[in-house]
Every structure is written in structure tokens, then in C-alpha cells.
Design brief:
CATH superfamily of one domain: Gcn5-related N-acetyltransferase (GNAT)
Protein name: Aspartate/glutamate leucyltransferase
Subcellular location: Cytoplasm
Number of helices: 5
Distance between the termini: 36 Å
Largest sheet: 8 strands, mixed
InterPro entries: Acyl_CoA_acyltransferase, Asp_Glu_LeuTrfase, N-end_Aminoacyl_Trfase, N-end_Aminoacyl_Trfase_C, N-end_Aminoacyl_Trfase_N
CATH architecture of one domain: 3-Layer(aba) Sandwich
Shape: globular
Strand order of the largest sheet: 8-9-10-11-12-7-13-14
CATH class of one domain: Alpha Beta
Pfam families: ATE_C, ATE_N
Strand content: 25-35%
Family: Belongs to the R-transferase family. Bpt subfamily.
CATH topology of one domain: Aminopeptidase
Length: 231
């Protein structure tokens, strides 16, 4: 297996840090090795499979939820109840009207991020798989599309790639609701884990991930269980 190391560039999550990536560099065999790389702390963005490789910083920790042992908190149960009027639909195809919702989400909620302003090319770069066809989890409210979670379906796991939703519905906590739906779908499909990307404790945008307990973090080249009593 071939890997490359990127040049350093400003970190997207910690403003005072520089980021370097270890990138899977094979031109083929992504499908063969993708799940194995995920289990070694890697992540997919578009066609690129990578993990942080920063010499002076180890803040990024891959996080996954063990499906069989996950127990929703009281707050998460309230979010499920609050959104009981939302219909969840699974699609294996990207749909034209997804982009309008994505554009509204990025341009409203992430004006300080690297994905602003949204463009169709940027959306396609992660929503369309060159070597893997994602699963699209749709949220519908009163007949309207209000959320989409782009999700990779692997043999033994699901991986949350990116979620976007109607910005005016922020009080519904649709990000957390969507993760709960991904966990439910993973359980229904007999998957072992849901990968949630990287947890960065010093980044406010990432704090929601640590609330799914128990979870496992990839620390010092091994998965370590984090339970409620440890958190």
C-alpha cells in the first residue's frame, strides 16, 4: 500500500495550528482497503482517503460508535421525540434538489469555513463517489426536504461523510437527530460501528460527537473505549 504526505497548511479547526495529512496514494483498490483504513483511523473526503499526520499536534482523534452498546441519553431521547414528525427516507442516488439545500446550509451556517461559498463542483467532489456510491439519508418535514446525510455503507460499518440541513430549523438539533438515525439504520443493517470522523476536544463545532456514548477513539494506534464515567 502506498501513502503520501501532504504539505503543511492552516488547520481548518484549530486556527493556531498547521495541518499535514497522510494520504492513501494507490490509484485503485480503494474499495478493497477502505474499511481497513477506516479501522486504522483514516477518513474519506471525496476520492481522497486520509488521516491527520501532524508532528506537533494530536488533537484529531477518529471516533466511532459501537452500535450494539450505544444507549441514547435523556437529551438525545428528547431530540428524537421533538422530531417524531420527520420522515426518514433512504436513497442510493444523489438528487438534483439536494444541492439547493446544501448551498443554503453552507452559505448560512459556515461562512467562516473552507467550504464557503458553496459551489456545485465542491458539492459533487464529496457527494459523488468515484469508487464508492454513498447512501443518502433524507429528512422530510411536511413534504419538504429539510436534511440530507451523505453516508458510506461498508461491509461492517456506516461512515458519516457530511450532513446538511435547513438552517432555520436549528432548534430541532437535526445534526444530532441525523446521527441517531444513522445509528438506527446501522443497527437494522447489522453493522458493528458508525464512524463519525474526527473528534477535536478544543473545537466547539466538534463537541456534539462526544455525546454519543459509549464511543471509541483511535488514540496511539488503537481504539480506546470512552464510557459515560470516563467522559
Amino acid at each position: 500500500m502506498k501513502f503520501g504526505i501532504s504539505q503543511s497548511f492552516p488547520c481548518s479547526y484549530l486556527p493556531d495550528e498547521q495541518e499535514t495529512l497522510l494520504v492513501y496514494a494507490e490509484e485503485s483498490e480503494h474499495n478493497t482497503y477502505y474499511e481497513m483504513l477506516m479501522a486504522a483511523g483514516f477518513r474519506r473526503s471525496g476520492a481522497q482517503v486520509y488521516r491527520p499526520h501532524c508532528g506537533a499536534c494530536s488533537a484529531c482523534q477518529a471516533l466511532r460508535v459501537p452500535i450494539a452498546s450505544f444507549v441514547p441519553s435523556k437529551g438525545q431521547k428528547r431530540i428524537l421525540k421533538r422530531n417524531s414528525d420527520i420522515t426518514v427516507v433512504l436513497s442510493e442516488q444523489d438528487k438534483d434538489h439536494y444541492y439547493a439545500l446544501y448551498e443554503k446550509y453552507i452559505n448560512t451556517r459556515h461562512q467562516d469555513g473552507s467550504m464557503y461559498p458553496a459551489t456545485p463542483e465542491q458539492y459533487a467532489s464529496f457527494a459523488h463517489g468515484d469508487w464508492l456510491d454513498p447512501l443518502y439519508i433524507e429528512l422530510h418535514l411536511a413534504g419538504e426536504l429539510v436534511g440530507v446525510a451523505v453516508t458510506d455503507a461498508l461491509e461492517n460499518a456506516l461512515s458519516a461523510v457530511y450532513t446538511f440541513f435547513e438552517p432555520s430549523l436549528a432548534e430541532r438539533s437535526l445534526g444530532t437527530f441525523t446521527v441517531l438515525q444513522q445509528i438506527s439504520i446501522a443497527k437494522r443493517l447489522n453493522k458493528q460501528h458508525l464512524y463519525l470522523g474526527y473528534q477535536i476536544d478544543n473545537c466547539q463545532k466538534m463537541q456534539y460527537k462526544r455525546n454519543f456514548l459509549p464511543h471509541e477513539r483511535f488514540i496511539e494506534q488503537k481504539w480506546q473505549l470512552i464510557s459515560k464515567k470516563d467522559w
